Amino acid sequence: MEILIQMISKKTQNSPLHNFLLTLGVEVKNTQIFDEVFTHRSYLNEHKSVAHNHNERLEFLGDAVLELVVTEHLYKTYPNPEGELTNWRSAIVKGEMISQVSRQLNLGSFLKMSKGEEQSGGKERNLILANLFEALIGGIYLDEGYAKASQFIHTYLIPKLKKIIEEGTYIDSKSRFQELIQNKIGFTPRYELIDQDGPDHNRMFTIGVYIEEKCVGKGQGPSKQKAEQAAAADALTYYL
Question: Are 55 and 135 in contact (CB under 8 A)?
C-alpha cells in the first residue's frame, strides 16, 4: 500500500500542471485543490465522472484574499486618504488587470473546459482568465496559507500598481473619456448597446460609445457597465 501511495505521489509531482506551478513558486501539497482551480464549470458537463468540483468556489475565496492583500499593502505603503486608496485598489483588482496577469502567466493553457467553450475562445476571455487567477489565489491560500498567497500576489500583481498610479489609470475610463471630450469639444459621449450574446449565466454585451453619430470605440463585458468602461477605454486609445 505504501509503495502504491509513493507511486501515485511521484506521478502527480511529475505532472505538467505540478511542474508549471513550481515555476510560479507554488508548491502543491493537496493536488485536488489545484485540479479544481484549473477546472471550468463547462468541463464537468462533459465529464460526469470527475470527482472534484469546478473552480467557482475557489474563485469566491480568492477574490476575498486578493482584496485583503492589496488593501493591506496600500495601507502599509501609502499615507494617502481613503478615497485614493480605494480607487487604486479598484484599479488593480479589476477584471481587466488580473486577466492580463493571468494571460501573461499562461494560466489558461492548463484550464480544463468543454470543447465547445474552448472552441468559442473561452481560454482567451478576460472574465474566465480573471476568475482563474482568483481561483488560483484561493487554492494557494487553502494549500499553503495566507503568507504564500500574499507572496504570490506581491510577485505577480502588486508591481503593476506603480504604473497605475503614475499614469492615472485608476480613474475609470468613462470619467476620463467624458472629461477629455467635454474639454476638447464640449460634447457628452453617449453609449449604445450594439449586441448581446451567450446564455444568461455567461452573457456578453457589446457597447459602442458615440460622439454625435460617429462610433469612436467599442467594448465587451459581462455587464453593460463593464462593456461601457471597455468602450471608453477603446476610445481613449484614439483620442489620447
Answer: yes
Q: Angle, nearest 10°, between helix axes 95-104 and 224-239?
A: 70
Q: What domains sit in the chain, N to C, each tagged with a CATH number? A: 9-167 (1.10.1520.10), 173-239 (3.30.160.20)
Tell me, yes or no, if 124 is annotated catalytic.
no
What secondary structure letter does DSSP report for 108? G
Confidence of residue 198 (pLDDT cuts 50, 70, 90): confident
CA pair distance 128, 108, nearest whole angstrom: 9
pLDDT digits (tens, 9 = 90+) for 123-168: 888 889 999 999 999 999 999 999 999 999 999 999 999 998 888 7
Backbone angles phi, psi at 161, to 5 degrees: -65, -40
User: In which element (H, E) is residue 210 found?
Assistant: strand 204-211
Q: Contact 191/231 with Cβ under 8 angstroms?
A: yes
Mark whether 172 is an active-site residue.
no
Of the candidates 59, 63, 143, 234, the residue annotated as catalytic is: 63
Active-site residue, from 35, 59, 117, 134: 134
d(CA 122, CA 159): 27
Three cell numbers, residue 52: 472534484
Instruction: Give the separation between CA 115 and CA 222, rounded to whole angstroms.
Output: 21
